[in-house]
Amino acid sequence: MEKPSVFCLLQSWNCQRVSTFYQLQNSIQSVLKTSEFFLPVEFNYSFCAHLGQEPNAEEAREESYLLKSIAWPEPLVLGLPLRQSSDPAQSYYTIQDPGDLQVGGQLVVKVQMHNFLGQPKKHGGDFLVARLHTPELAAGVAGQVHDHNNGNYTVFFPLLWAGVAQVELTMIHPSEAVMVLRRLREEQSDRVFFKSLFRSGYLSETTLCNLCLPHKQQPLCNYTDLQTGEPWFCYKPKMLDCDTRINHSKGGYKKHLLTVYESQFFQSGVNIKIPIHSAGVDNVTVQPAKVQTKGMHLEFTPSGYYYQGSWRPLSGVVMRQFNGSLVITQCLRGKMVYMYGDSTVRQWYEYLIAHVPELKEFNFHSPKNVGPYMAVDSNLNILLRYRCHGPPIRFTSVSSAEMHYISNELDGLRGGSDTVVVISIWSHFSTFPVQVYIRRLRHIRRAVIRLLNREPATLVLIRTANLQKLDPESSLFNSDWFSQQLDAVLRAMFKGLNVRLVDAWEMTLAHHHPHQLHPPSDIISNMVNFILSHICPVRRKRRRG
């Protein structure tokens, strides 16, 4: 649920029945099994958040405000049974007195959450998302959900096109599940674990690695980055030195994370990404704009919306369509495009390679889906590069020599009007305390500021998080709730800087496609068109004096 109050604290800083419950309760099974990789004994990893360089007083104040701004409402009473938790099948919404709706106005929807007993909920904290859409027009826009902390919610939609528009409301998680996710984030940040291979001659060993490890079990190798102070550790091999590390990889996922009680709140088809239906009509008819709608106060202004399948930003840039390799290469002529981050930004690199045959890739013999990658068009002097961000990163195998931090890469760029920087860093931080993400973004923000101070004409775009498909297991590692929390932090930390946000959250929420970690090609094409529209903006005609 996107809470309208997320940035308030930062202003100073720039029909199921009771029987269904019993049937469900009898069928509950643990979604997790034993791990095949040796892990340390039980350990509280919440101290991971406090490793790395100590923030100065100003940064500490900002961190405190950020954490307060994303604080989530708690149930009045913890430990409620499933039958008293939120049941999307018995909850409903109603469209408030639509009256004469016109383009430029807004639609207000009221939501009442009920439990499995059919009783109204008395507290908030459910994670809800909403969109308004017209399938015939391939139009859609995200809504904003306001939590009244009493079981009632209000959803605001801007009215941006004429026609019949349908309301779609989804409960991602009940409030009871969110409390479990918060516990996991603070206490089980090692639930995704990593490993490294060490090799010297014929000897090789593999050990566990992470942002922090219980050092009393065995000696550690300290790979803390000298420039940023970003911490990273591996257990020291028994027979080899620390400087024999050759790679980094995802080790796997911890199992048995939930109690039987907690697992009740993570059931596919019951309380993970379930639609909430209307108590009456679920659509409205929006009339073309009239004069009297101008100046109306809107509770929520999105970054953009879809119409005829194309993303239309509401501010900042005029969207252009770059159909075909010729128009793309003409836009990128003389440009150096540097993409840093996770696999969601790698999708853009792959899209351009697939749609622009003039871009010829260099073969670095990099592992598939890992990189680094580079492609050039020597005739038009185009350079395109992709590099993954530094640990934590859940890739199959990354050479130790290729483990670079984004901030260090940015410090190595000259910058200028011929330079485009694109960053996406969020997904691999979902299992860690938010302070870890704040620290990483702080280093990147400093480097972005240094880059823009050197060369103000450098174009910097930052991709936000997006929604994805969830099931009982993936929710514990990649829940949209984790992503929403990180997304709010990212937006706040880069607010006011000369950077452009690619709003992947709204672009996936507003679209008709099911949510996926890696959005499908028509969403990716809209994202790439958005980026290219910033690289090659529409030139406004000067008025003659």
What's the topology here?
Elements: H1 18-26, H2 57-69, E1 92-95, E2 106-112, E3 127-134, E4 139-142, E5 144-147, E6 152-158, E7 163-173, H3 175-187, E8 192-200, E9 203-210, E10 220-222, E11 233-235, E12 247-253, H4 260-263, E13 274-278, E14 283-286, E15 304-307, E16 310-313, H5 325-332, E17 336-341, H6 343-355, E18 360-361, E19 373-377, E20 382-388, E21 398-399, H7 406-411, E22 419-424, H8 434-454, E23 459-463, H9 475-478, H10 480-494, E24 500-502, H11 504-509, H12 521-535
Parallel strand pairs: 1-13, 17-20, 17-22, 22-23, 23-24
Antiparallel strand pairs: 1-2, 2-6, 3-4, 3-7, 5-6, 7-13, 7-14, 8-9, 8-12, 9-11, 10-11, 12-21, 15-16, 18-19, 19-20
Helix pairs in contact: 6-12, 8-10
What does it look like?
This is NXPE family member 3. InterPro entries: Ig_E-set (IPR014756), NXPE4_C (IPR057106), NXPH/NXPE (IPR026845). Residues 311-536 form the NXPE C-terminal domain. Belongs to the NXPE family. Pfam families: Neurexophilin, NXPE4_C. This protein is α+β, with helices and mostly antiparallel strands. It folds into 3 domains: 82-179 and 267-286, Immunoglobulins (Immunoglobulin-like, Sandwich), CATH 2.60.40.10; 192-253, no CATH class; 320-535, Rossmann fold (3-Layer(aba) Sandwich). The protein contains 12 helices and 24 strands. The chain has helices at 18-26, 57-69, 175-187, 260-263, 325-332, 343-355, 406-411, 434-454, 475-478, 480-494, 504-509, 521-535; strands at 92-95, 106-112, 127-134, 139-142, 144-147, 152-158, 163-173, 192-200, 203-210, 220-222, 233-235, 247-253, 274-278, 283-286, 304-307, 310-313, 336-341, 360-361, 373-377, 382-388, 398-399, 419-424, 459-463, 500-502. Strands 1, 2, 3, 4, 5, 6, 7, 13 and 14 form a 9-stranded mixed β-sheet that branches. The chain has a 7-stranded mixed β-sheet with strand order 18-19-20-17-22-23-24, covered by helices on one side. A 6-stranded antiparallel β-sheet has the order 10-11-9-8-12-21, with no helix packed on it. It is globular and about 75 Å long. The protein starts with 17 loop residues before the first helix and ends in a 10-residue tail after the last helix. The model is unreliable at 2-47 (pLDDT under 50).
